[in-house]
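A reminder from the course coordinator: this example appears on the midterm review sheet, so study it carefully.

Given structure:
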């Protein structure tokens, strides 16, 4: 069992397969000159399997594959199939661009839920945010998942002045379609030009929805990062991830593994533990895993102030979002 000094049990591992991506979202990738890690620096498929096996032996029962964009990795199919053999719940976060190439793999791996990052329902704005003209491909691939009875969670990073005007368009989408929309407060990472006046808060989001819809609060699950809701008679649901204004750290059960094999006990932790180098030296990584989680801060990596308007993003020690994994 993996437990921190605040007595939180950790059984959920997020593994980043690559820091590469086929989109260029500004809030995730620092700049156009970003250099991706060389292949030799990344965990190889067999190493991912070995590390995952160790986590599972310590009580991990859920693994999510992330990136960058995990499906741009050439051996993603092999990695997914390898991990699907473990007695865990396997899931995936993707931008959706290459999902059509992996639908058979997803079915074979018994993945029943996929998170897709989609910040706008407007094709021209999609190109503005991502620097790529792939909106129709992502939209079609969402329909493909639904046709295959795979639950779709849509991650929407809400940014004031950019896509906050589309919130109710996403809610309208849930009327006839069983998608789960997750509105995410804009979070600061190295190089993503975060400013407090770009944060559209949990309260702002609900206030906007209330101008057109009434909603019912749903019961949140143990260790949930979201606050879930439904508009009566809608087939889909929505939620808010309020990391900035109302964090959910007290029940956190998450651990992260970057594509180069560094373990982070929090999305915002500045400290990392190098599991990959230890594995390649033939060392036992169990003490490293337990020690990393043991020192987890009570809240948001110990780097945030309570009032986000006083937060100085440049003072946060961390990687860029694409280098951590979604």
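Designed residues:
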């Amino acid at each position: 069992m993996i437990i921190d000094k605040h007595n939180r049990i950790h059984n959920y591992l997020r593994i980043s397969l690559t820091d590469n991506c086929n989109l260029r979202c500004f809030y995730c990738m620092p700049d156009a000159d970003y250099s991706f890690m060389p292949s030799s620096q990344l965990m190889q498929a067999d190493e991912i399997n070995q590390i995952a096996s160790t986590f599972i032996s310590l009580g991990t029962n859920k693994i999510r594959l992330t990136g960058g964009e995990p499906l741009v990795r050439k051996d993603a199919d092999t990695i997914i199939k390898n991990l699907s053999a473990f007695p865990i719940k396997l899931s995936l976060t993707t931008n959706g661009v290459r999902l059509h190439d992996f639908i058979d793999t997803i079915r074979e791996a018994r993945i029943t839920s996929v998170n897709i990052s989609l910040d706008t329902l407007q094709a021209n704005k999609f190109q503005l945010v991502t620097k790529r003209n792939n909106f129709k491909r992502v939209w079609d691939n969402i329909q493909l998942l639904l046709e295959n009875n795979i639950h779709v969670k849509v991650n929407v990073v809400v940014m004031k002045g950019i896509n906050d005007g589309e919130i109710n368009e996403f809610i309208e989408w849930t009327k006839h379609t069983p998608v789960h929309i997750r509105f995410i407060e804009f979070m600061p990472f190295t190089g993503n030009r975060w400013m407090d006046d770009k944060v559209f808060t949990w309260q702002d989001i609900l206030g906007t929805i209330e101008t057109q819809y009434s909603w019912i609060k749903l019961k949140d699950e143990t260790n949930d990062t979201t606050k879930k809701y439904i508009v009566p008679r809608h087939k889909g649901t929505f939620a808010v991830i309020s990391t900035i204004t109302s964090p959910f750290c007290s029940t956190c059960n998450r651990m992260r593994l970057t594509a180069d094999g560094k373990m982070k006990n929090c999305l915002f932790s500045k400290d990392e533990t190098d599991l990959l180098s230890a594995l390649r030296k033939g060392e036992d990584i169990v003490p490293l895993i337990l020690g990393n989680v043991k020192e987890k801060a009570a809240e948001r990596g110990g780097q945030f102030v309570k009032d986000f308007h006083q937060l100085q993003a440049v003072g946060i020690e961390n990687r860029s979002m694409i280098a951590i994994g979604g």
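The domain at 12-324 is CATH 3.20.20.70 (TIM Barrel). Residues 45-57 form the longest helix (13 residues).
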